[in-house]
Amino acid sequence: xxxxxxxxxxxxxxxxxxxxxxxxxxxxxxxxxxxxxxxxxxxxxxxxxxxxxxxxxxxxxxxxxxxxxxxxxxxxxxxxxxxxxxxxxxxxxxxxxxxxxxxxxxxxxxxxxxxxxxxxxxxxxxxxxxxxxxxxxxxxxxxxxxxxxxxxxxxxxxxxxxxxxxxxxxxxxxxxxxxxxxxxxxxxxxxxxxxxxxxxxxxxxxxxxxxxxxxxxx
Length: 218
Hints:
Helix content: 10-25%
Protein name: Nudix hydrolase domain-containing protein
Order of helices and strands: EEEEHHEEEEEEEHH
InterPro entries: NUDIX_hydrolase-like_dom_sf
Largest sheet: 4 strands, mixed
Structural class: alpha+beta
Number of helices: 4
CATH class: Alpha Beta
CATH topology: Nucleoside Triphosphate Pyrophosphohydrolase
CATH architecture: Alpha-Beta Complex
Organism: Auricularia subglabra (strain TFB-10046 / SS5)
Strand content: 25-35%
CATH superfamily: Nucleoside Triphosphate Pyrophosphohydrolase
Radius of gyration: 18 Å
Number of strands: 11
Shape: globular
């Protein structure tokens, strides 16, 4: 049987390390009350031209990737992760399959774990599971005082076939389609949304591998 050649890409230096069983080298052991946590969905949605959807809040002018509020249940979060984006934008969205990726180390016998170099390896099948998970803070509206929670955001890839022109408004948000590089710069400056920027950077690499091997949705 012929062996399948796997395509390898080096992690972009803008992407933070993906934590494994060595997480305790980077994060202390923590325990949270369920009331301290918020689980959210984020979406990187592209059109047939490879442009990424960003949403501008018309009141504040803030531009960001689509990100859900706190869902009614975790079941909603995992079974319909793009539904929130459809409600915000009025668009019909599809989950975008990406090549499965695994991580491997170069020189696993290196004396210091911190010196290991990482590679992403593309598998032979696709998945619509999250391609990235981000840890952040979400700020909540409260009538008496500001409130926040530790947010764990699962980032999903999406595809939109038909949409109005960039700059169109819907339900209090303005839709912008731009290149991935423009989107990364937009969420980083001046909003300092490093979690979204990291998700976009990783998406760019995985989508390129997927597009080259599988193509865009027909």
